[in-house]
């Protein structure tokens, strides 16, 4: 235990603090929709909004004023189809959103989620054979089309969240062949089949129309499986490793960080956000719970935190750090 004379003095506590937060640690998720004049609060995620492209312009300016320099985009199109076509067409909602953001703030770092569930009529991240087996080749080819289209639109990084076997290698090859060798890949390397995604599926209109995603996302009971998934992504050329969700899986973040020397990211997902947000708003928890939740994720080893609390962080750092 530290001597009392060190713990009782605020200046000294700050001097010896092992973990600190900064605005450079956080990535803010944005949900972009078709239409005009839309800034619609997501019912299950208080304080988060669906934004049309015109309202996205105003949002980007506000984010810059708050010191947020990194965003990750999720598209929610009006129309979907069985082939996930809206995910990779040139005038897709995500592609238009990237160009909109770059027009407002060329220095805003834009990460694009690479997946099919938000654009595919059945809400799944892949294609299936009639017997229920995954059509891996078709799924990977479509995901590659999505990533390349996002890079062409001006994305700074792509983040495949589909959990298909071999997706990192396939995306790396596709991006390189298209002339985007410098575009990094942040892999959802250990993505669990978690109940904490509920509010996000509401926000992204991506709940599966049948079955679930347990055939291609991880069992929450498994640790060694996560390490194998991380090792495979590293072998295939991933640039950043991610664990999702974050707080219920801090042990996985620690182990993954020990396994890989690559930068570590964690996604504080919608269910984590909703629980803390609602508890703070109801007076059941102090707002320091928001700060503490982010601090513990970084302490576990994640230098990159995707969080819906990014807007609150600047004030929290000023108050509690």
TrEMBL record:
Which residues does 5-aminolevulinate 1 bind? Answer: 201, 213
Catalytic activity as recorded in UniProt: 2 5-aminolevulinate = porphobilinogen + 2 H2O + H(+)
Keyword tags? Heme biosynthesis, Lyase, Magnesium, Metal-binding, Porphyrin biosynthesis, Zinc
Recorded hits in CDD domains, A to Z, give:
ALAD_PBGS (cd00384)
Q: Name one GO cellular component term.
A: cytosol
Q: Which residues bind 5-aminolevulinate 2?
A: 270, 308
Q: Where does Zn(2+) bind?
A: 115, 117, 125
Question: Which pathway, metabolic or otherwise, does it act in?
Answer: Porphyrin-containing compound metabolism; protoporphyrin-IX biosynthesis; coproporphyrinogen-III from 5-aminolevulinate: step 1/4
* Record: residues binding Mg(2+): 229
GO BP: any one term: protoporphyrinogen IX biosynthetic process
Cofactor(s) recorded for this entry are: Zn(2+)
Instruction: Give the annotated active site.
Output: 191 (schiff-base intermediate with substrate), 244 (schiff-base intermediate with substrate)
Q: Which GO terms describe its molecular function?
A: porphobilinogen synthase activity; zinc ion binding
SUPFAM superfamilies recorded: Aldolase
Look up keyword Nucleotide-binding and say if it applies. no
Its Enzyme Commission number(s) read 4.2.1.24
Family assignment from sequence similarity: Belongs to the ALAD family.
Q: What does this protein do?
A: Catalyzes an early step in the biosynthesis of tetrapyrroles. Binds two molecules of 5-aminolevulinate per subunit, each at a distinct site, and catalyzes their condensation to form porphobilinogen.
Q: Which NCBIfam families match?
A: PRK09283.1 (NF006762)
* Listed PANTHER family: DELTA-AMINOLEVULINIC ACID DEHYDRATASE (PTHR11458)
Subunit note: Homooctamer.
Q: Please give the name of this protein.
A: Delta-aminolevulinic acid dehydratase
